[in-house]
Q: What sequence folds into this?
């Protein structure tokens, strides 16, 4: 890629922005006198999984919200999916609480998402099967176990195939048979040129899954 009318430093900066799915520069966030993020610089490249670690209260979840364009910052620069015309539609977030409507069944929750994205109903059934939710698909979300709710949240991500996958302690509440769902989501996202930000308190998980780990 040639960039005309720029010196070498400016050219390198433009190339970095084009290549990165996420670029945070000198991000600071404060709530009143409480400074949550201090001068954070972070990039996520296509095909990369970046692990995020730090003690409780260090701002990990807040950082995920910033990357997901859900939280405004006090100062600095945040660029997310600069080549996507509708970047928010290409972001998939799995947080501490499953993003489900409690009054819909697990299947209906996925059907609702599929309807918003014009995804065929056959894909809903395929995803329910792939995530082991077939036997409980007609159970209302507020009557499902924490593990079932977590699986459904992961199924939502599998259904929509986002370009940027944000995972905040995704293995919490999952039994050993379900951890492979998270691993597969990460693998699939990376293989299609997407990026992953993974928050975990478990160093073994970050070592196994992430390409590199940043600390807050």
A:
């Amino acid at each position: 890629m040639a960039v005309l009318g720029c010196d070498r430093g400016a050219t390198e900066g433009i190339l970095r922005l084009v290549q990165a799915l996420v670029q945070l520069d000198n991000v600071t966030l404060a709530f009143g006198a409480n400074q949550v993020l201090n001068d954070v610089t972070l990039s996520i490249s296509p095909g990369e999984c970046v692990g995020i670690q730090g003690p409780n209260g260090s701002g990990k979840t807040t950082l995920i919200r910033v990357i997901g364009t859900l939280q405004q910052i006090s100062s600095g620069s945040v660029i997310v999916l600069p080549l996507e015309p509708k970047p928010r539609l290409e972001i998939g977030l799995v947080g501490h609480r499953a993003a489900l409507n409690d009054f819909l069944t697990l299947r209906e929750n996925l059907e609702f998402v599929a309807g918003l994205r014009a995804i065929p109903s056959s894909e809903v059934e395929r995803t329910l099967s792939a995530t082991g939710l077939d036997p409980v698909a007609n159970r209302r979300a507020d009557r499902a176990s924490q593990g079932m709710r977590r699986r459904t949240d992961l199924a939502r991500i599998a259904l929509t195939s986002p370009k940027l996958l944000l995972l905040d302690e995704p293995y919490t509440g999952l039994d050993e048979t379900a951890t492979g769902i998270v691993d597969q989501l990460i693998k699939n996202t990376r293989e299609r040129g997407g990026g992953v930000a993974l928050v975990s308190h478990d160093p073994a998980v970050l070592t196994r899954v992430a390409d590199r780990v940043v600390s807050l």
Summary: The helical segments are 8-19, 60-67, 106-116, 121-130, 146-160, 179-191, 203-209. The beta strands are 22-31, 34-44, 49-53, 75-80, 91-94, 164-168, 195-199, 212-215.
